[in-house]
Each structure stands twice: as structure tokens, then as C-alpha cells.
Design brief:
40% helix; globular; 2 domains; alpha+beta; two-stranded antiparallel ribbon; 231 residues
Length: 231
């Protein structure tokens, strides 16, 4: 018995000593990356009609050097994957999902947002908040991975839509892949119309090296769309 227990105890002790020996800066960084930054509550009644947003929507690859507000970023993310309430089915999302499998995840490459440091963030849908994944400037690297579309580096944020196909194919088989692509279209159009309603500029980018974008985001999910957005 002791031959089995003692090695396990030594391993546990070594792990505890390693964790306790982390530098304060490293511990602080790990704590910050685990925290969820609350976003302002979304506005559900606006001044712009759907017809106005549809008629005014345009793709733009030119952005002003002006920070995006945290309120605007939160509104955009809510429009894509935010929680809404349907009296028939209970809590749902702003974009439809086949079988409510919800395979999409949103990553936000932040360059210039008031109140946020530059970095890669993950949208925590059920909390309507952001979790810092990596701190630093990543827009230029993202633009390079997107076939050197340098205008992306000028955007205040680049929102990347990624998918876990297994969530949907697990229920619908191979046809579920089609449903995932449909859902990306739903979420992206929601963002484009919301951006128009907020007076922001944006464009949908589908040309990029998938594996390079995934490596940059440090995710196993499949990147399917990038939406640069700014003033």
C-alpha cells in the first residue's frame, strides 16, 4: 500500500510547491485572464428601423483612428450571439441555431477600445462579458494570416467567428456542417445590421488561412469569418 501512496503524495506535494512558487506577476496574469469583464447591458429598443439598416448597409475597408466604445462592442457581440428570451422555448440567442446546438464562439481581437487593453478576448455569452485570452497587439498578425489584407490592422476590433462542428454534427450527422455555415451567416448579418444602426463601419472577410488564424487565437475551433469593425 505504501509503495503506491507515497509516490502519489510526492507528486501532489511537488505540484503544490510549483504553484506556490509562481512569480506574483505570473499569478496576477493568470488571475486576470480567468476574470470575465462585464459588458454594458445591450439596448433592445433603438432609433434605427430595420429597413433603414438594410438600406444603409455597406461594406467598408476604411476606418477612422477613433476608439470603439465598450457599449458599442457589447452591442455588436449581443447582436451576434447575445441572449434573448422566447416565451415558447425559454432562453435563446439573437441568431437562430439548428436544434439549439449553438456551435459558434466569438473571439475579439481588440486594437482600440476605450477601457480595454489590446489583446484577444473570448465572448462569454451567458455572462455577456469578455475574458482576456492573450494580451498584446495581434491585428497585424491577423491581417497577415488573412492574405495580407492590411486594412484589418486599422479596425478598432476584428471579431472572429469560430465553430465547434461536432456540437451540430453530433445531432444531425454530416448535414450538420451545412447548418453551421448557415448559422455563421445569420450571426454575421446581425452584426452588419447592428453596426449600421450604430453608425459604424464593417466588412465580412472570408479569405484567410484557417490554420494560421486558429493558431493565433490558440483555439481548436474552426475560424469561419472575420469582421473588422470601427468608426
Amino acid at each position: 500500500m505504501f509503495r503506491v501512496v507515497w509516490p502519489v503524495l510526492f507528486l501532489v506535494l511537488a505540484l503544490l510547491l510549483t504553484l506556490s512558487g509562481c512569480a506574483p506577476a505570473q499569478q496576477k496574469a493568470m488571475q486576470q485572464m480567468a476574470e470575465v469583464i462585464a459588458l454594458p447591458a445591450p439596448v433592445v429598443t433603438g432609433q434605427t428601423s430595420l429597413e433603414d439598416a438594410l438600406a444603409g448597409r455597406r461594406s467598408s475597408r476604411s476606418f477612422a483612428e477613433q476608439p470603439l466604445t465598450l457599449e458599442a462592442l457589447g452591442q455588436l457581440l449581443w447582436a451576434m450571439q447575445g441572449q434573448a428570451v422566447d416565451a415558447r422555448t425559454g432562453a435563446t440567442r439573437t441568431a437562430p441555431s439548428a436544434g439549439a446546438t449553438h456551435p459558434l464562439s466569438l473571439y475579439v481581437v481588440v486594437t482600440d477600445v476605450a477601457g480595454l487593453e489590446a489583446g484577444i478576448y473570448y465572448y462569454v455569452q451567458h455572462e455577456h462579458g469578455l475574458r482576456l485570452e492573450q494580451a498584446g497587439e495581434f491585428a497585424a498578425a491577423l491581417a497577415e494570416a488573412a492574405l495580407n489584407q492590411t486594412f484589418m490592422d486599422d479596425a478598432a476590433v476584428n471579431i472572429v467567428v469560430a465553430a465547434d462542428f461536432a456540437r451540430t454534427t453530433g445531432r444531425y450527422g454530416e448535414r450538420g456542417r451545412r447548418y453551421v455555415y448557415m448559422e455563421v451567416g445569420h450571426a454575421t448579418q446581425n452584426l452588419l445590421l447592428q453596426a449600421e444602426a450604430l453608425g459604424l463601419k464593417t466588412v465580412a472577410v472570408g479569405a484567410f488561412h484557417d490554420y494560421r488564424v486558429a493558431e493565433l487565437l490558440a483555439t481548436r475551433r474552426a475560424p469561419l469569418m472575420i469582421i473588422p469593425t470601427g468608426n
